[in-house]
Amino acid sequence: MLTKEEIEKYQSALEQERRLLVAEIENEKPADFGSEPDGELEEEADESEDFANKVAIKDTLKNRLSEIDMALARTKDGTYGVCEKCGKDIEKEILDIVPESNLCETCKKLVAE
Ligand SMILES: [Zn+2]
């Protein structure tokens, strides 16, 4: 079980990560596409590739954001740090690296296989 202090520590790590993510998402606005002042026609192919990349990056960031939101909700309802699959405590080593983790090491490996 995590102590109250530990949960608070992960909670502030999550909140900090969330702020960074939101800022990153703001910077990845695909609406900027084509608005470069020195855009040459030959660069169009590159730019649409760039556009696709930006959309993909934004999707990844948004997925990450919703995982963080779910983890933050778990810190509030008291289920944070508990594996969603087997109900055991998630190793602190995992939470230290990925505070939004919802699976323990064993279940994570099972999912990956
Ligand atoms: Zn598990």
Describe it.
This protein has 113 residues and is mainly α. The chain has a domain at 4-80. The chain has four helices and no strands. Helix 1 runs antiparallel to helix 2. It starts with a helix and ends with a helix. The mean pLDDT is 88. Bound molecules: zinc ion (ZN). The site of zinc ion (ZN) has 8 residues, from helix 4. Zinc ion is lined by residues 83, 85-86, 88, 103-104, 106-107.
How are the SSEs ordered, and which strands pair?
Elements: H1 4-27, H2 44-77, H3 92-97, H4 105-112
Bound molecules: zinc ion.
Zinc ion (ZN) binds at residues 83, 85-86, 88, 103-104, 106-107.
Could you give a short description of this structure?
This protein has 113 residues and is mainly α. The protein has helices at 4-27, 44-77, 92-97, 105-112.
Search tags:
113 residues, mainly alpha, 4 helices, binds zinc ion
Estimated helix fraction: 55-70%
**SSE ordering:** HHHH
Total strands: 0
- How much strand content do the residues show? under 5%
Give the number of helices. Answer: 4
Bound molecules: zinc ion
Q: What oligomeric assembly is this protein in?
A: single chain
The major beta sheet can be summarized as: none
Label the overall shape.
elongated
